[in-house]
Amino acid sequence: MTAPTGSANPAAAFYAANPSARLLGTTLRVVDRLAPGLGTRGALRLFFTPLPWKLAARRPLPAPWQLTHWPFEGVRVAMHRRADLEPGRPVVLLVHGWAGHAGQMRRLGDALAAAGFDPVLLDLPAHGRSGGWRSTLPQFARAVFAAASRLGPLHGVVAHSLGALAALHAAARGLPVQRLALISPSAPPAQFIGWFARSFGLPAGLGDRMREQIERREGVALAEFEPAWLGERIGQPALLLHDEADRIAPFAASERLAAALRDASLRAHGGLGHRRILDDDAVAAAVVGHLR
Questions:
Q1: In a 10 Å sphere around its CB, with 0-12 CB exposed, 13-18 middle and 19+ buried, how is residue 274 labelled?
Q2: Angstrom distance (rounded) from CA 54 to CA 158
Q3: Dihedral sign computed on CA atoms, order 124, 250, 273, 164
Q4: What InterPro entries does this protein map onto (predicted)?
Q5: Of the residues 13, 214, 228, 279, which has the maximum number of CB atoms within 10 A of its CB?
């Protein structure tokens, strides 16, 4: 897939809305010219920090949703589960995307509860009501594994944006799950790093240094998040739903995944964008139908 340029750069569309990010980007350009090592570290700190910060997303979910916390990699991770459901229902884990929060998945969770499932909403590290201020995609995938270890084998995972890539990576690594519903999955991280660097006018070499540092720190090659690597290792039925005009996660990302996965179907939507798709009744009905 050819990387977008200019106004079509998804990272530019994402960060342009945050004045703090724009100011930091200007500082990074100066620092990277004077001291590339410091520039790389500064770029990674910004890249790993969800923006806008999670404070606005810390409102509790309404009843009957109940909040619990459990320890994970030095922070407390939050899960939300309905208290009004009888035990024994098939468990479905719902995973938000970068800079999102569990509340964004609540309407999908309510639809799944009405259809006979036991939905569990996860706040990923540094998001929502979980602890921490920075996170990474490999940590997202580890958090999905950790949640499954507490919940038992999963009937399904419903995941949005970067959370969809984390769910796919976890499934490729053996996550016990029967079915996947992926909403507006992001482009692979290596591609997004390039967009990130260009959105701030940073040199291409800095993006290469960022990738090397991430792989060294996390112990995971970013190639493991590419459709070709995932497609060879995932056999679960997967439903992909994506708005064709999504400005944050290009529709082509779902097209590549659908072509790579062994058992996948792709449904195109229009007029919903990257976020409103989570609240659409037709999308919820498609997710429920797939998980059934």
A1: buried
A2: 21
A3: negative
A4: AB_hydrolase_1 (IPR000073), AB_hydrolase_fold (IPR029058), MAG_DAG_Lipase (IPR051044)
A5: 214
Cα gap 86→65, rounded to integer Å = 14
Closest Cα partner for 130 from 96, 85, 169, 107? 96
SS3 13: helix
The 10 Å CB-count burial string (b at 16+, else e) for 120-147 is bbbbbbbbbbbbbeebbbbbbbbbbebb
Can you tell me the distance from the alpha carbon of 268 to that of 272, in angstroms, rounded to the nearest whole number? 10
Sheet with 154-160: strands ordered across: 65-72, 75-82, 118-123, 91-95, 154-160, 177-183, 238-243, 264-269
Contacts of 40 (CB under 8 A, 6+ apart): 32, 206, 209, 210, 213
Q: Which residues contact 199 (CB under 8 A, 6 or more apart)?
A: 9, 11, 12, 14, 15, 16, 25
Specify whether domain 6-291 bears CATH 3.40.50.1820. Answer: yes
Residue 45 has pLDDT above 80, yes or no: yes
User: Over the stretch 129-182, which tens digit does the pLDDT of each residue have?
Assistant: 999 999 999 999 999 999 999 999 999 999 999 999 999 999 999 999 999 999
Domain ranges across the chain? 6-291
Q: How far is CA 288 from CA 68, 117, 119, 156, 264, in A?
A: 25, 9, 11, 10, 16
What φ, ψ does residue 233 adopt, rounded to 5°? -120, -5
What the block records as the tokens of 78 is: 């939050």
Q: Which residues are within 8 A (CB) of 188 and not within 5 positions of it... i.e. 6 or more apart? A: 165, 222, 225, 226, 227, 253
Q: Three-class SS string for 77-128? A: EEEEEECCCCCCCCEEEEECCCCCCHHHHHHHHHHHHHCCCEEEEEECCCCC
